[in-house]
């Protein structure tokens, strides 16, 4: 069995070593700065990446939950995508981003990469009634490797339940938490800390990598909040300790 390991880079971004592949989630590698986008609030990044893009090494796959917000794909992240690694995301991302290496799928469609299957699964990034943002999550399956769920910017526990029913053998979850909020929308845009702990129970996983709760001002809940919520739920042992830029092997 190949080694599974994770290196937390910052924000929603990790380097996941799984089934012999080097996988980057929602690539954000810019230095701290603010981003103003038409029709949205200004997003401010407060901390740079634990590993610069230039030091990342080879990347086999990028999992891009969506491309429309800079806290999921910033300028350096775009440069990584433009360098040509296979990037799986929404159909909108495949249409909007340059390069033939960006592939978009609808919910429940799969991409075969050698022995590994990457299935795009549904996600919800805004509360009901607040409009739609195309966004997806991912389930990774391969022989002799643990099944992995990567949530992307999903706030819906109902969708987590649906994913767990379709993939009952998920053992590791990478959960975007932080309860992201912007003034124009009434409600959290990603999992709250409490909901992340509930999601872990729903999925029945053996380990959780908690991300998307540091480095951006619009994340309303912190890493400490996430740890407290898992502890309060009696599930503190599930949440892995992932110091920034430190490779952590995961025994599953």
Jot down its keywords:
252 residues; alpha/beta; 7-stranded mixed β-sheet; 18% helix; 28% strand
Radius of gyration: 16 Å
Q: Would you identify the CATH H-level superfamily?
A: Ribonuclease Z/Hydroxyacylglutathione hydrolase-like
Alpha-carbon distance between the two ends = 10 Å
SSE arrangement, N to C = EEEEEEHEHEEEEEHEHEHE
Strand neighbour order, sheet with most strands: 8-7-6-3-2-1-15
Whole-number tally of structural domains: 1
Structural class: alpha/beta
Give the total of beta strands. 15
What is the 3D form? globular
Weakly predicted, low-confidence segments: none
Largest sheet: 7 strands, mixed
CATH topology: Metallo-beta-lactamase, Chain A
CATH class: Alpha Beta
Strand content: 25-35%
How does this model look, in words?
By secondary structure, the protein is α/β, with parallel strands linked by helices. The protein has one domain (4-250): Ribonuclease Z/Hydroxyacylglutathione hydrolase-like (Metallo-beta-lactamase, Chain A, 4-Layer Sandwich). It contains 5 helices and 15 strands. It has helices at 75-82, 91-96, 157-166, 193-203, 223-232, and strands at residues 4-10, 13-18, 21-25, 33-35, 43-45, 61-63, 86-89, 102-104, 110-113, 116-122, 136-141, 147-150, 170-176, 207-211, 247-250. The strands form 3 sheets. A 7-stranded mixed beta sheet has the order 8-7-6-3-2-1-15. It has a 6-stranded mixed beta sheet with strand order 9-10-11-12-13-14, covered by helices on one side. A two-stranded antiparallel ribbon has the order 4-5. The longest helix is centred in the C-terminal third of the chain and has 11 residues, at 193-203. The mean pLDDT is 95.
